[in-house]
Design goal:
- Two copies of one chain form a homodimer.
- Chain A has ten helices and 30 strands.
- By secondary structure, chain A is of the alpha+beta class.
- The interface between A and B is large, with 60 and 60 residues.
- β19 (308-313) of chain A pairs parallel with β17 (292-295) of chain B.
């Protein structure tokens, strides 16, 4: 079976851990049996692997997430990269074309589309296997997963099944309702639309060709930015008459806000945290090196990262977005294909960052027009190439990189270095790539 | 008139802004009329100067505070340095000897001892002038300031005056009572002991010689570590029968805890802070460069510094001390005679700090046995001396300092630099001073 995980865009609702360059699915907050912390994407990937070791997993995502995915899942995972964001129908069409044209998946094979961020247990992926089998049988063109509602939520779309059987034909779909209407739907036996769709690859390729003019994956990729933004629900699901829905009553949580995310945490604290005994229902996620001390708080979430510090009443945390939008904050931490960086000091005419290069990786060979840089290697071994000349480097070495000089570093072991950038107009855009 | 301000020890009750090396009196949180922020010591010094431009002010304090005092008040302020901590009687005796032997103050002159940290208005210092005049008249050996109590506090000692006059003889002293006893004292007309004492210098010199065997200031200084720790109240005040007390009913606040400190803040926030409209009675002091966002909090204080982050219910904040004692945190920021430093990265075998040297200042000429250092100057101009050789330095210059090399930097303008320390056992104690 082919599983396509839709790894959605960056979001600010879990600021300061998520922002324009870090997405919530990469935050490591779930404690595993061996005491380590894993992210949503790591958890979901591990669960799929444990339920179906043979499943072929593809992650459909944007360019900006590729580094984080490889860093967290390893480089053997399939990634279908969207050149830009175009909502779920173009993303699923591109993934279908990629499976067919790049991965040579037969049009007869079943594909299950699944969001990357539900907080679920393994029974969810067992249900997804069952969903694939139902799609395989060919009784319907599309098979959905319907989540048994636990409360009248205004956040979800509703699926109304024809009957109460485990697998039923779909009678109709309802958009996100108000509270009262949601209760009415639930009384009628409605299910939440969990965003999981199973179909045979041919079905989706046909739909894609019907709605978009393209020959193959490569053409679709090249014209991706011209596609209309439209959701899969709107473009396909709501227009399809031959749909089945399978009920799922296991654990299913949508961890989109601090309120719901903290409910899913095994332990109240991650990181260097101290709570006094008068704290009640307090969760703290501290990514900084210095301690967070909480005293006498109730129903509060505290989150500290290189980007900033949030202290919020849990219920209030769901209204965070406009406040975060109003913050004009330089990106302070980012994962890159070669490792990560963290800004540790900012002055008018300098910026100091800590760079971590993963073993075996290297930066692009590049130069800067408006700044010079000083690297001090603090750990690890590797090689620099500066204006074509390769030199070994180790902890304690200093490399001065004048304006315009072409440079890169190759990490033989993991390398950490302190980079001081000096100049009048320091900008991430001042970077010219060169070939070696 | 001679005013001696007792600048007490470091404390952890205002962590993370105060700790073993930063005292609460140096935290800049009081907004002045020109929009800048001043510390307790700056506020008190400014108030004294505005009430009595001719007052001779001496700060009695420990070695560790000298840099911070010079940085905040300028180098013209008198400082009487205690070589170690020995409670208030030895401190006041040392200050008296310093005034007599170093500053050549006549034994007939009046001295007023005053804590450095009450949060008061100028009428308090007008009352102190009046206190000095009463001491000048010689009716009593000691004149105290009695604060009109505003509530039955368990935190203060009480002075019971003989009558209700503005200036009265003292009947008796009472130690910190319980709540019920405090109310009883107040009903009897008791006043809080505000820690302010006025006397003629000769009186105190005589007392000091009576209790300590010493010839002059220099001998007292050299044997200071052998003196018994004893408070001025216990050694002198409670044994003296000829005492007057003057009532003071103006504003007087003891800003010893986050709860009382935030009450005295003009504005709810200092630094990069965003509160949503659902916050109520929330104070935030953020010394970091990144934003603090608070949502839906009530009666909470948030404080973020390079040392850590506190989030506390205001009332609970008074129980902070044992929690802070349990935190084993490296000092991340400190003021020095030459400027300040901040730790910006810590790894197993390296530490990176940002150093700010004030214009005209220089570090000690020193070397390290177990680490080498790399300095990258990020702003300013000055000179380095490395193994005896002086060189000009400016922004962008890199100075490598191998193990054992003797080095210093002299700031012609303010200089900022990033210092990467590299070695197996990095410690502040690995520092050998040399003469140039």
């Amino acid at each position: 079976m082919n599983i396509v995980l839709l790894s959605g865009g960056s979001g600010k609702r879990l600021w300061p851990l998520s922002n324009d360059v870090r997405s919530k699915q990469f935050i490591k907050i779930f404690k595993t049996v061996d005491g380590e912390y894993e992210s949503m994407v790591q958890r979901v990937y591990r669960q799929i692997r444990s339920v179906d070791t043979k499943a072929s997993v593809t992650i459909a995502t944007s360019k900006t997430q590729v580094s984080a995915i490889y860093n967290q899942l390893g480089t053997s995972v399939g990634i279908c990269v969207e050149p830009c964001r175009r909502d779920t129908f173009p993303a699923i069409a591109l993934a279908a074309a990629w499976l067919h044209d790049v991965k040579k998946v037969s049009p007869k094979e079943v594909v299950v589309i699944c969001p990357v961020d539900p907080f679920v247990e393994e029974d969810y992926f067992e249900a997804i296997e069952r969903l694939g089998e139902i799609a395989e049988s060919g009784e319907a063109n599309l098979v959905l997963m319907g989540i048994e509602p636990t409360y009248p939520s205004e956040k979800y779309g509703y699926v109304i099944p024809k009957d109460g059987a485990l697998v039923s034909r779909v009678s109709t779909f309802k958009e996100k309702p108000d509270l009262k209407t949601a209760q009415k739907y639930i009384d009628q036996g409605a299910l939440w639309n969990g965003g999981v769709f199973a179909f045979k690859l041919k079905y989706l390729l046909d739909k894609a060709h019907e709605l978009i003019d393209f020959a193959d994956y490569w053409e679709l990729y090249s014209k991706y930015d011209t596609l209309t933004k439209i959701s899969f629900d709107y473009a396909v699901v709501e227009k399809e008459s031959n749909i089945q829905v399978m009920r799922f009553s296991g654990q299913w949580k949508d961890l989109g806000t601090w309120n719901t995310l903290t409910e899913a945490m095994e332990e109240p604290n991650v990181g260097n945290v101290l709570l006094n005994e008068k704290c009640e229902n307090v969760h703290v996620i501290n990514e900084l090196d210095v301690p967070v001390l909480c005293m006498g708080l109730k129903d509060v979430v505290v989150s500290a990262s290189p980007e900033g510090i949030l202290v919020s009443d849990k219920e209030q945390s769901s209204y965070i977005k406009p406040y975060v939008d109003s913050i004009d904050q330089q990106i302070m931490f980012a994962e890159k294909s070669w490792g990560s960086f963290r800004v540790i000091d900012i002055e008018d005419e300098s910026m100091t960052i800590k760079v971590t290069l993963n073993a075996g990786r290297s930066m692009n060979y590049h130069s800067h027009e408006r700044r010079h840089e000083v690297w001090t290697v603090i750990s690890g071994k590797g090689r620099t190439i500066v204006d074509g000349i390769e030199q070994p480097v180790k902890a304690g070495d200093v490399i001065e990189l004048p304006v315009g000089c072409r440079h890169t570093i190759l990490a033989d072991t993991e390398i950490k270095l302190i980079e001081v950038q000096l100049g009048h107009e320091i900008s991430v855009h001042d970077k010219q790539k060169h070939s070696l």
